[in-house]
Specification:
Distance between the termini: 40 Å
Strand content: under 5%
Mean pLDDT: 91
Number of helices: 7
Shape: globular
Order of helices and strands: HHHHHHH
Helix content: over 70%
Largest sheet: none
CATH class of the largest domain: Mainly Alpha
Structural class: mainly alpha
Number of domains: 2
CATH topology of the largest domain: Hypothetical Protein Yqey, Chain: A, domain1
CATH architecture of the largest domain: Orthogonal Bundle
CATH superfamily of the largest domain: Uncharacterised protein YqeY/AIM41, N-terminal domain
Number of strands: 0
């Protein structure tokens, strides 16, 4: 499903000559192909799942946000603006992200449900969150919140 949406978006961006969208989508599809090839070597001939594609897209957005921070600190707003545009292109394919308040509520619910009470339970909590909220939660932030809650 996501794979088809990415391909269709690339075709549309090429028609409308959106250069940033074209280059970002090509880069995204190349990363997807790399992951599909790696999955085939592990016996998965269908390629990666939509959940794994969402994880890949989230990682790509995080990488660009890190780059934006570095470019801004380095006084390179031109490059930071380019990264922001790429983030917007990728974000079109991600589901609506949970707000921090909703994320905290979801984390508290999972911790209570799993009766997690120490940092040893962090893996179970994070695994459950990734299962229930694929693509909808920034798991980097969630990890910090879980760690604070379990310490």
């Amino acid at each position: 499903m996501l794979r088809n949406q990415l391909n269709e978006a690339l075709k549309e961006a090429m028609k409308t000559k959106e250069t940033i969208a074209v280059s970002t989508l090509r880069l995204t599809l190349a990363a997807l192909k790399d992951r599909d090839i790696a999955a085939r070597s592990k016996g998965n001939n269908d390629g990666i799942s939509d959940e794994e594609i969402l994880e890949m897209l989230q990682k790509m957005v995080r990488q660009r946000q890190d780059s934006i921070d570095m470019y801004t600190k380095g006084d390179r707003e031109d490059l930071a603006d380019r990264e922001r545009e790429e983030c917007k292109v990728i974000a079109r394919f991600l589901p609506q992200q949970l707000e921090e308040e909703d994320m905290r509520k979801a984390i508290d619910e999972v911790i209570a449900e799993l009766e997690a009470n120490s940092i040893k339970d962090m893996g179970k909590v994070m695994g459950t969150l990734k299962e229930r909220y694929p693509g909808r939660m920034d798991f980097g932030k969630a990890s910090e919140i879980v760690k604070q809650a379990l310490v």
